[in-house]
């Protein structure tokens, strides 16, 4: 049974930034603010296991959003990947509790992993997605051309451009392949005029929302109460309401419409009907 309400298509509930937090309180707050579903997204093998475990952990609770899992190795973690990692990811998918592969992709901004190594394991994870007919959650930074060519060559037609920061032209290329475009809290920022213009032009049947929590806290909460150790203003699933509100404003639609549209888009993409 799929919940109504906002679908947060990208969140990291297993993040170390939440270690000292009451997770049930975080999830209760989200539920009573109208969040119906959360996709708990991994970035390495450890968090992939945690994401699947959290599906079971919160399965019976009714006053929280429904939790789903995505498994995958983030491009900046590509150097940690090997054949055994791919086997373990495949086993997690075979549990039946995984609805997407991610977050995966290419990141040429950070220098954690060689681009060729990133490409190799990106392709291997795309093969898992194809084998099990699952959408992919793409993290792409300074690498849209290479990522597009790989996606096209591998004939991937289901997925999300996560936390999109590219141009309308880039979005259109991926839309033509069958992808969806997801916007996070950074679309609310005062200096995000270009990104806001892109959001206006994404078709309503291909737009999604996410928090990328604990990162990318939206306005007006951005910069408030930063963590003393990391400097990060920790983001929470409940804050997705600000992103929804901004998208509604940009598209000149009622907020309730955007809640419904983005939820239905996620349900369609993840084949949850």
UniProtKB/TrEMBL annotation:
- Quote the PROSITE patterns the UniProt record gives: TATD_2, TATD_3
Any idea which positions bind a divalent metal cation 2? Answer: 139, 162
GO terms (molecular function) for this protein are: DNA nuclease activity; hydrolase activity, acting on ester bonds; metal ion binding
Q: Which domain of life is it from?
A: Bacteria
- Residues reported to bind a divalent metal cation 1: 10, 12, 103, 212
Q: Which GO terms describe its cellular component?
A: cytosol
Q: Keywords of this protein's UniProt record, alphabetized?
A: Hydrolase, Metal-binding
Record Pfam families:
TatD_DNase (PF01026)
* UniProt-listed NCBIfam families: YchF/TatD family DNA exonuclease
Protein name per its UniProtKB record: TatD family hydrolase
Q: What organism is the protein native to? A: Spiroplasma platyhelix PALS-1
